[in-house]
Amino acid sequence: MRPDTPAENVDHTAEAARLERTADLYPEDAEALLLRAAAHRELSGDRPSATALYDRLLTSAQELDDPYLVRALKASNLWEYGHEAEARAIIDGIRTASPRDPAPWVIVAESLESHDELEQAHETFTQAVRLLLADGTEPPRATHPLLFGRHRVRRMLGAAHDEWDALADTVHTLPITLDELHDPKRVWSLGSENPAELEAEIIRLRAELGAFREALSRPFPVAVLHWPADELAELTEAYPDLTREYPSYDAHLATIEAALRELASSGTANLGIVTGTVPSYEAFAASELSSPADATLLPQYATTLAARGRAVAWPPEPSAACWCGSGRTYGDCHGAG
Q1: What is the pTM of this model?
Q2: CA 106, 158, 216: angle at the middle one, nearest 5?
């Protein structure tokens, strides 16, 4: 599926089947591919098949990158088709395990919220915020949905603002304030005869829809290809013609960062980096009936890796490890410029 394909034009069953076939071809990428396939199964209404995919991952001999995310998605899906007790047991297990990744927390808290378990949702959001956010530091982007979800649930509970709600306000960037966006008493103005009320509600709904689209959209990114130093040396030794593309390792790293910044400044969203290996690239070239020395294959190879779920989002948080593998933080390395 192309990233720009409108959701209403997607055959979710066919797309899920395609992703499952791709996972069989690339077992090293099965986690990312099968999670996307399970999402399509859910959207098609075939929730039991989605559960089967989550179980396939959880029982696989291959170690998962994020097993708690898979468990959280399974719990949310189970609850939607009547398996509440099993879903609650999984959610309790995730809360006890206290994963350090925000995504499983968001999924299980929102699942509780969607089933009107507001007190439990609030406790879950709060537990995650206390675990993952350090006092006095800028909250990473990945934790923003925790702050927003907690704010939303507290508004529905009628709770007074606290310090975490104030922090949510500071990282919120939409034109509608969080208090207004999450107001449970706001008038549903589609039936109103007051044009001002109707216009205000349309603005609120657009802002809310934009937030949901940002949170739920998972197209593969515009990806730039990165070669680790040893892989680049092997590549240019085997295919000297590619030295025109990669005159040196330092130049390669500088080109990546410059290209991504230029794309970002032009308004391109969802940027990422994929890491290549020589055997993988040679196999790709063979599948294209071409020579690895053909430089025009490089962007196609990058796109293929991204479509297989191998891309890492750019830019990293300033305090996160730099994408280049230097061992320094991004803020002290390529993000310092």
Answers
A1: 0.71
A2: 25
DSSP structure class, residue 182: T
Residue (of 30, 29, 34) closest to 15 by Cα position:
34
The residue among 44, 42, 37, 2 whose CA lies nearest residue 16 is: 37
> DSSP strand E in 154-283: where?
222-226, 271-275
CA angle (83, 86, 90) in 5-degree steps: 135
Q: Which two tokens stand for residue 202?
A: 């349309």
Mean pLDDT by 10 residues, the chain (337 residues): 46 91 90 92 93 96 93 95 95 96 94 92 96 83 92 90 91 80 60 65 63 50 91 94 94 93 86 92 87 92 85 88 91 85
225 SS3 class: strand
Residues 208-230, buried b or exposed e (16+ Cβ, 10 A)?
Answer: eeebeeeeeeeebbbbbbbbeee
